[in-house]
Amino acid sequence: MPSRRTFLNRLGLGLAGGLLELAEGAEPDVALIAGIEKTTLLRGRDGSGPTWFHPRGCMVPGPDGPTALMTLQVIGGSDYFGPVHWMTSRDLGRTWSAPQPVPPLGRVKQADGAEEGVCDVVPEWHARTRSVLALGHNVFYSGPKFSANQPPRWPIYAVWRDGRWGPRRRLEWHDSRGAYIYSNNCGQRVVLPNGDILLALSFGSTKGQSRSVAGAICSFDGETLAVKEVGQPIAHDQGRGLLEPSVTRFQDRFLLTIRAEDDRGYVCTSRDGLNWMPKQPWTWDDGEPLTMSTTQQHWLTHSDGLFLVYTRRDSSNVNVIRWRSPLWVAQVDPNTLRLRRDTERVVLPLVGDGVNDPNRVALMGNFHVTPASPEESWVTVGEWQPRNDIHGDLLLARIRWSRPNILANPVPN
User: Fold this and answer.
1) Are strands 80-81 and 367-373 parallel, antiparallel or unpaired?
2) Which of 108, 118, 191, 365 has the greatest number of beta carbons closer than 10 A?
3) In-domain check, residue 157
4) What percent of the chain has pLDDT over 90?
């Protein structure tokens, strides 16, 4: 059995691993988040522009400092998205280039007249190949709406390098368990020291089957993403099962947070990313479960503390669809995997009246977390009002740290 320090070194944590080792067992630091600032990147709530959705970013290192690269797409209805676009910022998100299409992630006409689109894209910098892997999944449209009878679906990706996008590709997984669908949509993933990528797949063999989740280690050579190994499945027989899994690494473990359809979200841990401990529902530190409604959670990871960003039921939003506003954050106790209630705060506030006029409250259930620099991390989200002409703004919340996040430096090579 390798020592803890040896294990940390194998994970590639280096100095960060040493600092985490010293910090293990210490009380969570309530003051690690020094402040949160809300900014509007693109306006749509007032009808002056389109309603952008799925904004997800990553940092690309360069000789003159990092460039933020963000993918996004317009929303026109429930699960109905326009072609994937991208934009960049050279000044840590203060100004951005105009969104422009990602050619390989557009619409593709099908023989039956339907169109295959791409959605739920997450871009991540891959240092070993000096490229950005933008991974989403396919979706089919019949006219201006989501097709009720979706054919089989799978992950779709494209690679950005030196300002250019490569071709549209499919992540192949020839396993009968994913015969109807397998996906890592909206999921955070971890790049391992050897350049392999650890992600989690949500999958089902038939349309009616409740989906399971499993960790998957994939190789990536800068062009092709390929499944090398898939771990033991995590099952759940409520509704559609387990969806939109996100992975992070903290201290000497991998952690997985998963959307479900039983008013809960779930968390579990693993030493290798393939074999997971039994899942447990997200609860407060006193054991009271959080009440969620089929919506995603994402990790906010700092070298000195682990946090979760999420939505939940609250007295202020009881009539908001799926309680998808506001966005909250709280610190995770790494020993119990429970949220510290005394650390909870709002990341992006509910705008409007979630009790008496919920249709005018913009939903914020599809969001992303980006470690932008050692000094700050971002939460990005596209608002939308499904019962009020769709309109919404594209928002960025800057989470400022009281101590540098040494995990946030993008590695150039």
Assistant:
1) unpaired
2) 118
3) yes
4) 87
Mean pLDDT confidence for 360-368: 96
- pLDDT tens per residue across span 377-408: 999 999 999 999 899 999 999 999 999 999 99
CA angle (188 as vertex; 287, 167 as ends), nearest 5: 160
Mind listing the pLDDT tens digit for each residue in 128-157? Answer: 999 999 999 999 999 888 888 899 999 999
- Residue 47 C-alpha from the chain's centroid: 27
**Which of the two residues, 382 and 409, has the higher pLDDT score?**
382
Q: Which residue has the higher pLDDT, 26 or 107?
A: 107
Q: Are the C-beta atoms of residues 130 and 80 closer than 8 Å to each other?
A: no
* Segments forming the whole domain that contains residue 75: 38-294+370-401
C-beta separation of 84 from 73 below 8 A? yes
pLDDT of residue 144: 84
Residue 202's CATH number:
2.120.10.10
Q: Which two tokens stand for residue 333?
A: 């106790």
3-state SS track over the chain: CCCHHHHHHHHCCHHHHHHHHHHCCCCCCCCCEEEEEEEEEECCCCCCCCCEEEEEEEEECCCCCCEEEEEEEEEEECCEECCCEEEEECCCCCCCCCCEECHHHCCEECCCCCEEEEEEEEEEEEHHHCEEEEEEEEEEECCCCECCCCCCECEEEEEEECCEECCCEECCCCCHHHCCEEECCCCCCEECCCCCEEEEEEEECCCCCCEEEEEEEEEECCCCEEEEEECCCECCCCCCECEEEEEEEECCEEEEEEECCCCCEEEEEECCCCCECCCEECEECCCCECCCCCCCCEEEEECCEEEEEECCCCCCCCCCHHHCCCEEEEEEECCCCEECHHHCEEEECCCCECCCEHHHCCECCCEEEEEEECCEEEEEEECEECCCCECCCEEEEEEEECCCCCCCCCCCC
In a domain, 329, yes or no: no
Residue 360 domain-assigned? no
Instruction: Provide the number of structural domains found in the chain.
Output: 1
- Angstrom distance (rounded) from CA 185 to CA 311: 18
**In this structure, is residue 162 part of a structural domain?**
yes
- 409 pLDDT more than 90: no
Q: What is the pLDDT of residues 282-314, one digit of tens each?
A: 999 999 999 999 999 999 999 999 999 999 999
